[in-house]
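= Protein in question =
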Amino acid sequence: MRPFPEGLGRRFDEAALTARPSSVAIIDRPGSILWVNPAWHRFAEENGAAGSSHQWRSYFEGIAPPLRAYFETAFGDALDRGQVFQLEYECSSPEQQRRFHLRALPVGGNTLVLEHALVFDAPHDADPLALALERYVEPSGFIAQCSNCRRVRDPESRAFHWVPMFVQRVPAETTHVICPSCADYYYPRRGPVER
């Protein structure tokens, strides 16, 4: 584990952040991960992160490109204004529907303390129609999957469904979109989203 960032000890208790059950990371303005707590490591291991190489790259590399700019801007705004940024988001597995609360606390003008706290965890109710996988192939030949909740768009009805197989193993012919529910709920102030 990397040492706790110098200077943060005046504002944050390292032992308390280490003991938190929620995942905590400290990043700088460009997104470099400076420190993570044990819960961050556990979550990464439980969700298939190989080794520890994921820990020290940019935080933003782990965010799908359509949303990367959103978080870079939101975190930059939080740092510039000295205000906490908060957001609920979905991070489900093939078996479990999970919702987290993200809190980004600015420290000075260049550091954020990020906390990802679990707020909901329950088994998915799979759509029985999802078993007909070919129904999700768009006329373009791609499968449109929400980059946030990972539900898949039915080209005929335009509805988004939970398809566990596409979460467990994303088909190579997948394109990422943001479903209307996620766009309305999570990103209402960032302008129109292609549907």
User: Anything to note?
Assistant: The longest helix spans residues 65-81. The chain has five helices and nine strands.
